[in-house]
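User: For my dataset I need records formatted as: sequence, then structure tokens, nothing else. Please produce one.
Assistant:
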Amino acid sequence: MKNRRFPYGYEMQNGKIQICKAEYSILTGIFDSYINGCALKEIAEKLTFKQIEYLPDEYSWNKSRIKRIIEDKRYLGDEKYPKIIDDEIFNKANSTKQNRRTTKNYVVTAENKPMVYLVQCAECGSPLYHITDTKCAESESWCCKTQNCKLHIKMTISELQDQITDLLNNVISNRDLIKYSESQIQEEPTTEIMRIENEIERLFEKSVFNKDELQNLILECAENKYYFDKSTRHITDRLKADFEKSNPLSAFSMELFEKTVSAVLIDKQGSVSLMLKDGNIIREESSNGCTVNSST
């Protein structure tokens, strides 16, 4: 899967990180557009429409990418990255972002309820409750009410949807992340399979038993296991089809979310991962930005 090694606007030249001339004007244009009133989503849609390359042969932008660019302090320069954005412009853009945050944009609505109700604590598995406190600058948070956990993460619904959109986009662009999981192999058999297995065991316990009856039970058990395995794998096959039909998202898609995701997990670091309908978990590794699949 393709991933940027450096923030947008930088490249490696002669062993050193330098300003990328091809991306410089786009980067500064993002800051200027945002300061002059354009919304994150609007900027992303314009860049996508103009087919501006974000990665080699990838032209899809979303508001989460724009938001990360505006918040990235590396553009101010440090020992590793040369300065691209002036302090005044950077501070003005981030001040603008803070001022645009209003309570009405973040309340739980009928449209986002299906997503909100699927948010879980990655530490203990309990539901996370969305809390709004208009007295605080960071008015939204997610709280686990389990006695021994008490996880509390400050994050808006909008920010969570942005992270979910990024993870879904990564699966859209790398469908190899959709694969048969260990949970499918280890899933509890049906009661019918367990019943047949118990009958087989009882026959073996007898000193004398009907071989034809045993053979029929073994064949019946094998047939049930085959269709059981086929049905669980069908979930993964359906997920692959759903992602193959999807174009890169410029904003959160409730339709794709409801088709593919069974739970949203938030851990104590505030990292978000998705549990897909087939039990696989899609998470982003913070060290390199890569999205990985781990079986439950």
